[in-house]
Amino acid sequence: MSMAASATPALAARGITAGYGGRAVLAGVDLALGAGEVLSLIGHNGAGKSTLLRVLFGLHRATAGEIRLDDRPIPPDPAAMAAAGVAFVPEGRGVFPGLTVAENFTLALWSARLEGREAKARIEEVLGVLPAIAGFYGRRAGTLSGGQQQMVSIGRALLSRPRILLLDEPSIGLAPKTFQELLRPLRTVQRARGMAVLLVEQNIAEAFAISDRVAVLKSGRIVFAGVPADLADHARLMALF
Question: Which domains does the chain carry?
């Protein structure tokens, strides 16, 4: 089943096939993320959700299909995607545990070639969105709780002011309240900036609460595309898994 946003998509997958060691994980996936929208990608474990995000960011090579950015084909590569305004927050946080939060941020700013007043402004901006980070800004990331590390990982991605944010399972290991405290400010900044967000998430209720659209991936194929209200019937939702 094909899925396309109503306007020219900010980021799109066209006929993506990918796998590992000869085993197919994605089988001709079409997915379009509209500019300024939040799209939730859900599905059972092993459906290929994380693989698709990795392919979109250039961390895993597709065997067929193409990635399009602003409706133009682009060979996905992490450096090229970052330069084009795409940020990726991987499953498992991905912070550097031996570095302080401040050093994690400094490294991200250096990678984005931001320094001086602009770098300071970006840090202040992120701390305004996620003020709790200020309370552990000088601590090593490896000593933080799972929720704090996830906050740092998202904050680090926001430093570059991405126009497209790929989020892979941000709720893993987090209490529901902690996850809500992450999602609310993220939705606020997303709306303020017109940022597009592709969210892979198992916490369906919380994901749907901030999403404009939803897609269901099953066994490497998109089997449903619509709005969260379409899946308000729990039986219908479970039938898609």
Answer: 36-52+83-239 (3.40.50.300)
